[in-house]
Amino acid sequence: MKIEILGTGCPKCAQLLANAEQAVREAGVQAEIVKVTELTEIVKRGVMITPALAVDGVVRSAGKVPGAEEIKRLFPGG
Questions:
Q1: How far apart are CA 46 and CA 29, in angstroms?
Q2: What does the pLDDT read at residue 54?
Q3: pTM of the full predicted structure?
């Protein structure tokens, strides 16, 4: 699974990254977590409000910082 944190590096983006890492640990799944900070790439994905979270290329959350429990529900089969 690939998890992407889309944002320019603001404190909310950092919190979303930490929450995603926690969700992966708690769920016991294998995942690659990457940060996407290039604004043109973020907009190309249709995201207008950051931070955003994408799972396997699909934007699942934007404009908020979901907690680890909510992020786990966004995983495939979650």
A1: 27
A2: 98
A3: 0.94
13 annotated active-site: yes
Which of 13, 42, 53, 55 is catalytic? The answer is 13
Residue 8 structure tokens: 């320019």
The one catalytic residue among 10, 39, 43, 48? 10
Comparing CA positions, the residue from 37, 58, 39 lying closest to residue 48 is: 39
Residue showing tokens 């404009």: 63
Q: How far is residue 17's CA from residue 37's CA, in Å, rounded to a whole number?
A: 12
Q: Which two tokens stand for residue 49?
A: 């409000």
Q: Quick: pLDDT tens for 20-42.
A: 999 999 999 999 999 999 999 99
Residue 46, both tokens = 């249709």
